[in-house]
Amino acid sequence: MTMNGTLTRVDTTNLAKALVGFDRMFDTFESRFAQQMATNYPPHNIIKTSEYNYVIEIAVAGFRKEEISVEVEQEILTVKGEKLEEQPSSFQFLHRGLSSRNFERSWQLAEHMVVKGAEIRDGVLSIRLEYVIPEEKKARVIDIVEVK
Fold first, then answer.
1. Are 131 and 92 in a shared domain?
2. The sheet that has 76-81: what strands, in order across it?
3. Exposed e or buried b for every residue in 53-74, given b needs 16+ CB within 10 A?
4. pLDDT, position 37
5. CA quadruple 21, 25, 27, 28: dihedral positive or negative?
6. What are 89-143's pLDDT values in tens digits?
7. Structural domain of 1
8. Residues 6+ apart with CB under 8 A from 63
9. pTM attached to this predicted model
10. CA–CA dist 125, 66 (Å, integer)
11. Residue 51, domain member (yes or no)
12. Is 18 in the same domain as 73?
């Protein structure tokens, strides 16, 4: 990325020669990164709480629980906020600093990343994630058999 925030294209041609089947991953990464750079609403934090646990915190002030959805499909976490009702017309905003526009944010999750739950507290939506390594992918010691 350059100093002005634009994404610089990385030439992955040589990597594609050595890493078979990763070309889609590079293209997906590049397009997702460019999409995330294009918007910063709503603001969010990504926190690593331990070796395998993460939390995504999203500022959702002004949204009620029933106006927010959290969905995971094919390793893409999508959070949507959609206001269900308009503000009453009996008053007029002199200043509107709290945004109440609808939003949709997506994150590409790593393989084996599991969404463990979500909660709203004090205008912040917290989504708990855990990297769960399947048994067959964990390191193991192979027994050596002596043949006579």
1. yes
2. 68-73, 76-81, 103-108
3. ebebebbbeebeeebbeeeeee
4. 58
5. positive
6. 787 878 877 777 899 999 989 999 999 999 999 999 999 999 998 888 888 899 9
7. 1-38
8. 81, 83, 100
9. 0.69
10. 12
11. yes
12. no
Question: What percent of the chain has pLDDT above 90?
Answer: 50
135 burial type by CB count under 10 A (0-12 exposed, 13-18 middle, 19+ buried): exposed
Q: Give the amino acid at 17.
A: K
Q: Are residues 6 and 73 in the same domain?
A: no
Q: How would residue 54 be classed by pLDDT, with cut points 50, 70 and 90? A: very high
CB 126 within 8 A of CB 116: no
Q: Which residues lie below 8 Å from residue 1, measured CB to CB, with a gap of 6+?
A: 7, 8, 37
One domain for residues 17 and 55: no
Domain count across the chain = 2
